[in-house]
User: What shape does this take?
Amino acid sequence: MSYDVKVSTSGNDTVIRVSRKMEAKDIPDMARKFVGETLTVVQTETWHPAAADGSRTADVSGEISNTPVTLKGTARIAANGAQSIQAIDLDIKVAVPLIGRKMEPFVVDAIRNGLQKEHDLGHEWSGK
Assistant: This one.
C-alpha cells in the first residue's frame, strides 16, 4: 500500500486529499476486469472548524481512479474521555449497468480494509 497526501486550506476549512494505492486482492474476478490488480482511491476530506465541544466534521468525496466507482459522505472526529473517536459514513456507487449493485459490497470491503490499515498504522505510529 502506498499513499500521497496533500493538505491545503479553503477559507476556514482544511482540505486533505489522499491518494491511496492498494492491492485488489479481495475483489472478485468479475470486478477485477474493471479495476485491475490494484485500486487507487482518491479521497478528498474538507474539514470544517471545530464545534463548541471540540469535535470536527468533514465532507468526504472521492473515486477509485479509472473506474466507475464514486464515494461521498461525511467524517467526524470527537473526544471520548482521553481517547478520540473517528466515524466515517460513505455512500459508494458503482455505475455499471446490471452488475454495479452486485459489485458495491466488494468495493466497500476493499475501502474498509484500506481505512482499517490506515487506522492501524496511525496507532502504530503514535505508539498507542
